[in-house]
UniProtKB/TrEMBL annotation:
Stretches of the chain forming a coiled coil according to its record: none
A Gene Ontology molecular function term of the record: cytokine binding
Domain Fibronectin type-III positions: 102-194, 395-492
Topology class, membrane: Single-pass type I membrane protein
Segments traversing the membrane: none
Keyword terms of this UniProt record: Disulfide bond, Glycoprotein, Membrane, Receptor, Repeat, Signal, Transmembrane, Transmembrane helix
Protein name, per record: Fibronectin type-III domain-containing protein
Record's subcellular location: Membrane
């Protein structure tokens, strides 16, 4: 029999521990078939020992030998009749052929030109060898870990390149040999953010909307998938969704949501792209009946009582209310009600502020056993929204006014709106003060509704100077007046 690259080869004998039998492994030749059989010969000259194992159909076989003495082993491919047989050879001392497996759960992470490699520690192993190279490069860089270390950090690497990694234990008395792990490919770092292309909602039914997001990613060739995190801005609930597609559809309630997207691969994740999905703003016919479906009343300037249709108790038990100052992050309260249709919002160590507007959003949930959200998709419906003040005040600023189209007997007065934070109550309308001498007993007053910001003064005297002031009006009364708007009517 001959040694041949086409025949049986790479004979190797080892065991996992002292108690295990010694097992020899080999590779079949390129001409082997499913009827190929092998002969394994074991010889230990010192003990005058020889054992022949015939008709082995597999490419491994366990043997019994004297542990302290050198052994020689041959495997012969004996099944070919029309060609020369092939053989392979191995020599070693059995007690030194204990071979420990590589560590399990080898993990790696990349960030800022670094590769962090970690593993599960093994019994009897104090140190590990780690080798790393650029993908496809012929030479390795090998380092030895510190004693009892569970990780190794490589620094100063090129973020745009991929690397190959292998780990093995460092040989010691109890592990004279160590197997290398499989070769792991550590892909290039994901340094770019996804670019959000579409971020849209469409009404689907009362209190719900269809949400669609899609994005592009410049390094998509090295991406395994994407992580989309959707969380309520009120911090009640968030869900992490993984997808291999650069898009996502969800059915959401009228809450405000924070949405982030990042790409990931086996070595780490990209920076995340973030967008805010504002709370439902009464847009479209399907949402037009969300306002004024709940009543909000202030109770002794210390709490709000929210009530809704008593018939709701026959269909729902689980509710959630998001509440807080308008244009600020809302808080939330989730509760179960069986026979009631109201809830008091009262928070310890929290004082509701007068003259500031609060927002309330009532959600209904279909669950019976728990009222907590289980997922973001199609998990609740926004029943109604409302705004309220614990107590109203008069506006502290005035509109800015001007005039247009002055004739002999008329003039058009126009003014700006008062900022919400200066209204200090619900806007009920505007008061227009005007007169010639502008003495108290000669002033005319006209109140117009809150939906307009122009008014035509008529029946004026020609060739006369008029002074006009405009103020905003809330339930608490009239606010600060504007600067004088002065004009003169035409003579002819």
């Amino acid at each position: 029999c001959l040694f041949s690259t086409d025949g049986v080869q790479d004979l190797d004998c080892f065991k996992k521990s002292k108690k295990d039998p010694l097992t020899c492994y080999w590779k079949s030749g390129s001409s082997a078939s499913n009827i190929t059989t092998y002969t394994l010969i074991i010889a230990q000259e010192v003990r005058d020992y020889c054992k022949i194992h015939h008709n082995i159909s597999k490419t491994f076989h366990s043997i019994e030998v004297f542990g302290k003495y050198e052994m020689n082993a041959w495997v012969i491919d004996e099944s070919s009749r029309n060609r020369n047989c092939s053989k392979t050879f191995f020599r070693g001392i059995p007690n030194n052929l204990i071979r420990c497996d590589p560590p399990t759960e080898i993990m790696f992470k990349r960030d800022s030109g670094k590769i962090y490699i970690s593993w599960m520690e093994q019994k009897h192993i104090k140190k590990y060898n780690i080798q790393l190279r650029e993908s496809g490069h012929p030479s390795w860089k090998m380092v030895v870990s510190e004693e009892n270390a569970k990780y190794m950090l490589f620094e100063g690497l090129n973020p745009s390149l991929s690397y190959e990694v292998q780990v093995q234990c460092t040989p010691n008395q109890k592990c004279p040999q160590c197997s290398w792990s499989e070769m792991f490919l550590v892909p290039a770092e994901l340094t770019k953010k996804p670019v959000i292309v579409k971020f849209q909602t469409y009404p689907v039914k009362r209190g719900q909307r269809s949400f669609f997001i899609n994005w592009t990613f410049a390094q998509n060739a090295t991406v395994d998938g994407y992580t989309v995190t959707v969380r309520k801005e009120s911090r009640e609930f968030n869900q992490i969704l993984n997808t291999t597609l650069p898009e996502l559809y969800l059915t959401l309630s009228g809450s405000s949501y924070l949405v982030s997207v990042m790409a990931f691969n086996s070595a780490g994740s990209s920076p995340q792209a973030e967008r805010k999905l504002p709370a439902l703003q009464n847009i479209g016919k399907l949402q037009s009946n969300l306002l004024d479906q709940i009543n909000v009343t202030a109770a002794f300037n210390k709490s709000f009582i929210i009530s809704w249709d008593p018939k709701m108790k026959y269909s729902y038990r689980c509710y959630s209310i998001e509440w807080g100052l308008v244009n600020q992050t809302l808080s939330h309260i989730t509760f179960y009600l069986a026979n009631e249709n109201s809830r008091e919002i009262k928070v310890r160590k929290y004082h509701f502020e007068p003259f500031k507007r609060y927002q309330f959003i009532l959600h209904i949930r279909p669950y019976k056993d728990t009222c907590n959200l289980r997922h973001v998709n199609n998990s609740e419906t926004t029943y109604a929204m409302a705004e309220a003040y614990i107590s109203e005040g008069r506006p502290v600023s005035a509109p800015n006014g001007t005039y247009h189209n002055v004739t002999k007997h008329s003039a058009l007065i126009e003014w700006t709106t008062v900022p919400d934070e200066d209204l200090r109550g619900f806007l009920q309308g505007y008061v227009i003060h005007y007169g010639v001498n502008y003495q108290e007993d000669a002033i005319s007053r006209i109140t117009v509704n809150s939906s307009t910001n122009t008014y035509k003064l008529s029946n004026l005297t020609r060739n006369t100077v008029y002074k006009v002031q405009v103020s905003a009006l809330t339930n608490a009364g009239e606010g600060k007046k504007s600067h004088f708007i002065i004009f003169k009517t035409q003579q002819y």
